[in-house]
Fold these 4 entries.
Entry 1:
Amino acid sequence: NWIPEDWIVSLLGKKNPLGVILAVFAGIPMYADIFGCISISESLLAKGALLGVVLSFMMAVTTLSLPSLIMLKKAIKTKLLVIFVSICVAGIILVGYFFNVFQTLFL
């Protein structure tokens, strides 16, 4: 109830083609596991966000969280980390758009 429904629909709803990308980059600074994201995702869906946007947000939070990337940086070289992040971002965005199309066509 803190974030107005109109605001969520305008940013993450059907009329914004960049909703998936916004959701991915909004999820990166967060640190939560998948179970922590479920309640946030449920409320986003209830307020009008598309399924692909919500899934992209959940995947970005669990895969690309800033604390996880900082820990990975200590284990792997920077070049490999950049490749990892690039592949993950591209994959998450593709999956998000796929589910948005699926939702608008079949649900």
Entry 2:
Amino acid sequence: MLAGAGHGGIEAIFLAGLILLGFINAVVSQSMDFTTLGLSPDQLAEAQGQISAYWSTPWYMSLMGFVERLFALPLHIALSVMVLQVFTHKQVRWLWLAILWHAVVDGVAVFLVYQWQGYDWYAYAMEGVIGVFALISLGILFALRQLEPVEPGPADLPPVDPPAFIPQPIEETPETLDKTRFQ
């Protein structure tokens, strides 16, 4: 389970770093004079267009990557737990189910990108679909939680009588007292 959380977590950290780096670049580029960079007129127009497009995008759109990573964490953890079932139950079918689930999620996401890309609501709908996959992955996690091997508890074991304790008399002599002193 930690492998899935680590995988999804490190992706989230890298993505957050890239978003922060992009924001810093946009802030620096906003006050920059691109004519001093020796760009061709086409490159200059493209660079200025990219900066103006970045600043004209609503602020909450930059959070979509964060939301996607948040939704991807349950998926990564569920996939890791499914692969773990291969080792705990000695059934390879769990590996194939994990690969299939990953392929379904990725395949649907890629398909919908091409279907919905031109619409204004495209990003929100994609995050909604990824959110549905996250909920299904949480369901998988809760379903697999019960598949752990059951170990016998104290009620299942036969009672054991403790051995009888019979204290032995101790002789107190000067030699035995000397052996008990801290040296």
Entry 3:
Amino acid sequence: MSVKGGRGTVEEWFRRRGLPLVVRRKVVGAALLQRSTPLLVFLLALDPILSVLARFTDVPQAEFDSRVANSGYVVALLGLTAAALIVPVFLGWLVAWIMRRASKGVNLVFALVVVLFSIIGLPALEHATGLRELLAPTVGINALTVLAVLAFVYTGLGSILAWALRAAMRQFRLVGQLTSRALPLLMLVVLFSFFAAEMWQMAGSLPRWRMWAVVAFLIALGVLFLSAITSDELRELGRSRRDNGVVTHLAGTPLDGLVPEEGLGQPHRVRFTERANLVLVFFFAQALQIAVFGMLVFGFFLVFGALSVTPEVAKAWSTHDLSRGELFGLHLPVSNELVQVSLFLSVFSALYFAATMTTDPVYRKSFFDPLIADMRVSLAAREVYLARWGDEIRHRHADNR
């Protein structure tokens, strides 16, 4: 029976799948610092881009309107926005990829450099370039951020967050599938609402804080629905892991070939922390699909509304003068009324997609069943991991008492 990986390789595989609480060994010392480095690099790249973007858009209304008329300004604004979404994720992934292949000594030195630059170097650089006015508060905030990242990694939340970012990138590969299969049918449902004057009156008259309250209410409904679905599916998977055929799910994993000769024996009881980790990962996997779909719908309505609804028509529908569009403090080259309508319809559409993804056979096969298959692999791998190294783990815990 061929052995594909030792215990360390298997535990790293679990962490990369967002399941650090399945692993029965804590990350401490230099390993903790090194595992925190990709997330620190992500934050290092994101901070200056957001500072430049805020400086780019924090201008009076009249000046912003004149700048939007310049196509070069619009292109630069879109470029900065795209950079804020892509560059930090790419650099974090690149650093993680490089560190997996570098020696421990090189990784430790690089991690120390990143920590020092995060606390001292970046605040000093931003202060020198005028992006930050006060140096000492920024140093303190960055030091607390580094400590928070280390705590994230120590508790396992860092692995879950890293997995979530990788999963988000994988979900963007499904944009074509989402656009071709889910978006057209949904447009038939909500497109008429977009052209309803009552929709513009309702959404356009709400202050932004109240619109966010409406969005939060709809998201809460979606969370309750996903929580119920997740609980039911994991309960069913828990019953299926009693089937000895789970070994077939391990092909291509580090646990392929690691099944003990005497077999797996009785299924191991899932601890509360493990169940919470499994539920969180499964929930995030669904939520990311839904979030990507919601962003697609939001972008569609922004572009579609800018092309098809003139300012005069939007003013007539909303029954008041249009105001400047803004989202998360960033000024947009569209009206605030269009932003509000697009935001409401995108969240409603995401809620509709969440329901159909698990109940409609076509949607379930395309978007939900792959998540179930992935979770089945994780549960099968856990059984083999505990069957092979369970005695070693128990003896070590007994020695530490």
Entry 4:
Amino acid sequence: MVNEHSRETFNGENGERSQEFPSIQLDVLHAATNHFSDENKLGQGGFGPVYKGTLADGKEIAVKRLSETSSQGLVEFKNEIMLIAKLQHRNLVRLLGCCLEKNEKLLVYEFMPNKSLDVFLFDSKLAAQLDWQKRFNIIKGIARGILYLHEDSRLKIIHRDLKASNVLLDHEMNPKISDFGMARIFEDKNEANTNRVVGTYFGVLLLEIISGKKNNGFHHLEHGESLLTFAWKLWSKGEGMELIDQVLVPSCVASEVLKCIHIGLLCVQEDPADRPTMSSVIFMLASDSTRTLLCPSEPAFSVGRAIAKPTEPISDDGVFSVNERYWANIIGNYTANSAYERDLNSIFKEITSITKSNYGFYSNKVGEVNAMALCRAGLTFTFLVTFAISFDPYFLHSCANNIGNYTANSAYERDLNTIFKQITSITKSNYGFYSKKVGEVNAMALCRADVKLDVCTGCLNETISRVKLDCPNNKEAIGWSADCTLRYSNTNLSEKLEINPQTCLYNTGSTADEYFQLRLGELLSDLRNKAASGGALLKYAAGNSSLRASERLYALVQCTPDLSEGDCNHCLDKAATNGILRCCLKQRGCRVLSPSCNLRFETYPFVEAGAEFPPPPSPSGDRQKEEEEPNKSKRTPVLVASLSVIFGVAVVSISGFLIWKRRNNQDTEYREIQLLDLVEGRIDM
């Protein structure tokens, strides 16, 4: 059927020659997908939604409707599509054609009836359909496809998003890699030349296939380990078979399983120079022996982001950007099996067991560990699970290294683990705020107020896992995710205003004009006053206002509810002066985060529609008196005119993912690192 549609001549690579490529008419795709109806929607990818379609002759297709985030011209877009279409391999999803009509950019692929690998791999019922032989064939097929992209195709494409959901399965469960060239369409011009692509994600995927567990959602209950460190410890003790998915026990070949674990661990080593090339991986998979394989070193604690060191010292006001560690080398680290680690694990488990929303804010202390968590509200459980499985692209952390470290099996570690258990076991919403103390550990958790309880606890569970990976053994740390904030320390956190460290995320899209800034200033000023005047359980406000034409501006602000009204006002004021003004002035999208408060605004609705908040108890007693103190209230007024200049930002959604960059004027190396942060997985083998 595709051949019956019009064919368009696209310029070939380097303009040297032209070649025909099927250009499918828009009305044909409308008919095939029932006008892109929700019933035909297969899923939402990072570059846009995907729909199932059936052509008039009965042929099934998958149509990717690209978002408008590609700013390429039509000719350049056609050239890139032509290049991608030339990639032909049995382990790559085949591109059948495209449609470029009425501002639509549609890519038509062959339809994969068994959906994606993650559908089977991480489902307790469907996993049994993938016996060991099928999984081993899938591993080898993925390796062959990646080798072709890296070395055999003239494009030398680096797949920056290799994960189970991007591996599709045909009728016979043969793997076919999808989304291999999307970065070219979305103007990642350094894709083939960057020297910063990490080689971890084939190894991660390999270990996920063997274990049936998601790396990014894995949290070993006893030791708080990631899947990678858990696998390495089992392998190093000669207990590698303990990692295997139990449904594989009847069908597995032990020598093949152990060989794959060995290869996977070689691929996730911290030093890229130690990782094997993909051609070496193919050779090792085909070999009958593991005797000649090198011994892998222990994997890095974190494999989600490239970490950059700032080229300039951080300013006194504490503003920093993505992945810059304000507390690094200041607070100190804890040691393995120390009391601090145990207390931290306790807090993590407690926060991730929360069953009561508490308006999204949670605070706790166990031993020396103090923690806070703040969730964003209003997401469905399904979205939360998806969010938790793939490392939150909005996750930020700060490790306080001047406080010291806890040692393994210490009282601090036990108390921290106790707090983690308490927080992750919460069954009462408590308006999203939780404060705990066990021994020396203090912890706070704060969820965004419109987040449902299950979303909040899931966010906190993921945040705990991430903080433990990124700040191992630190007695004090903070982690910010899209829907929650978690803090822990060996010092008191309750009713204590903490403005630093402060960080921001913003989009590189269009800039805001003076009218936008004026409306934003008015909206945020109103929301700030509403949030600060909230009770002792909830200091949160969200709203929207009109811009030009049909465009609207959406925003929210939130403080930890243990703050006084004056402190909440002051914290949000600093979020503007130290955050927006210095980080993202005149941008149309921004999130400013600090330990005690945060603010966000967008040009699209991001708060769950219809979210309801039970009326919190009215402030009373000493708490009310404190909030009414005149000296405190003197700190609250902030002129709207000032805010209109300060708040110049909105986060622009790009069909499920955002491109965040640092404000700092940093060199090309920095920009490459930010480009890597665009995706959740990347590989260069």
